[in-house]
Structure prediction request, 460 residues.
Amino acid sequence: MIPELMTALPLTLVITFVALVAGFCLALITTTLRVVRIPILSSLAALYVSYARSVPVVLQLFVAFYGLPLLVAIFGMADFFTPTVAAMLGLSFYHGGYLSEVMRPAYLAVDRGQHDAADSLGYTFRQKMMGVVGPQAVHIALPGYGNALIYLTHNVALVMYIGAADVMATAHLIMERAYNQYQFETYLVLAVIYSIMCLIIWVIVRYFERRSPMYVPAVGRAKRVAMPSL
Amino acid sequence: MFEADILLEDIREILSAVPFTLFMALVTFVFSTIIGSLFALAEYRNIPILRELIFVYKVAFKGIPLVIVIFLGYYGLPPTIQFLASLIGINFNGHHTPNWVLLVIGVTACIAAFQAEVIKGALNSFDNGQADAARSLGYTNGQLFRRVMFPQVVIAAIPDLTNSIMVIMKALSLGFAIEVVDIFAQSQLTAALNFYYLEAFVIAVVIYMIIAFLVTTAADRLERSLRVWT
Prediction:
């Protein structure tokens, strides 16, 4: 059973990876819009964040699956939304909105004096972000980012419902082939697989959490928590 | 698309599922908060073996996606309930347990791990100097908890508890996998009857966002009014 489940793992990982990258870009844009306060755009960004955070992920996936083809049709393009693409886009939207709510507090948590100090030293905006404010915000945001990644992994288990052939869907095929005798056992195996994926993510994030304080002055360092992301 | 009469019909049908969803959310919230508080208290007091057990529980339930927990509960709980009932001499067919009870148990088990974190954070925000002050005034442990600690900890926990109500609402939407009809499942059923999928899902999205807005506004108001007299 496990080897067969593993054949579907690449698809799960690809969906996760696409959502991770696209969600990160979306979150950067959304956070910028919300922090800089451009009249209409920032309230749109706020609406998007509240959509991503208050609507169940299954529902977001279904909206992406049924809604995006219509949007594409308006622009006169061919419908290329296979369930996999719809799953990637739906999860990217979800992850972007969630992540923006991790990034914005982290950015705001950086001490105001750090901005002023960088400005008074004549740093350009880009230098300020990359050299002073960015590293500190990253340090503050990392535990939350780890959480977001773990939630994303959990939610990838839902793409089965719009028809993407991921690990869960394969498990359902396996169960049905055995006349639904071993459902509990199959779900236990799935639980172990997802736990291992989350554990790997946690280990990676913790490695960066360990490294990140070296860019941050001792006063601004977050207190070390035993397992912040789990 | 988006004809008025279909939208009205759909809204009426989907709204009919709101009370039951709120009821399930309330039950889940109460039980998961109680269990989470017990966990947090055990960790706060540093009770030796219990502490490690709770840690294992938290790691397990945070690593497994909620869908899988729900399915495990769906297939695993009825035999367990039947076995437990037979131990105390009751002849109860576990497979007659209503599905929504299984859903609530599954979601409660999962959310309790997160609630423990919320309550722990609130407990940690409590200023220990106040405990010393209360002790020096001769308060017993019970009085200290009831009169000094509890009122402050509850208020500190309000924002996160509100957030967890929304998390529970979203988590319950996975009940459609085990035939529990909540807002999302009702929108799916409605859509399946008249084939207007996007309309039904958009209505569900709007309902979820309105509920989220109402809950956060109410919680903000509650927090502000409580902060006045402490």
Chain A has one domain: 2-220. The radius of gyration of chain A is 20 Å.
